[in-house]
Amino acid sequence: MAFTLRQKVLFKHCDPAGIVFYPRYFEMINDTVETFFDQRLRVPFEDLHRGGAVPTAQIETTFHAPSRHGDLLDITLICKRLGRSSLKLEFVALSQDQQRFTATSTLVYVGTDGRPLGWPDQLRDRLTHELGVTS
Known about the structure:
Blueprint: E1 2-8, H1 23-40, H2 45-48, E2 56-63, E3 72-82, E4 86-95, E5 98-108, H3 121-130
Antiparallel strand pairs: 1-3, 2-5, 3-4, 4-5
């Protein structure tokens, strides 16, 4: 199942030419992940990060077309694979049906020491059952 977050391109996202400066897309991707955990999984990052964290271990992005100040981006997150401590995600960003970027990333659930841990049972159950992710 997919989760979509609408992001308006703000002045802070743009370079002097008025297009999104590419690192800002990574912030938008992270905002989408954080909102997904909060709204869809009902596990806000501020709660999750008290006993662990979900840093991005890998990310690959293709930029298809520039986005400009004022554009509305629909950033869709799709869970692709759930591992013992990892989660592979795919992202597609569209503006008025024009693809702006695609990305894949891998999150890893880690403990306070930064070492990978298995997903907490409640969170694994939500990812597995509510989202139809296969282990």
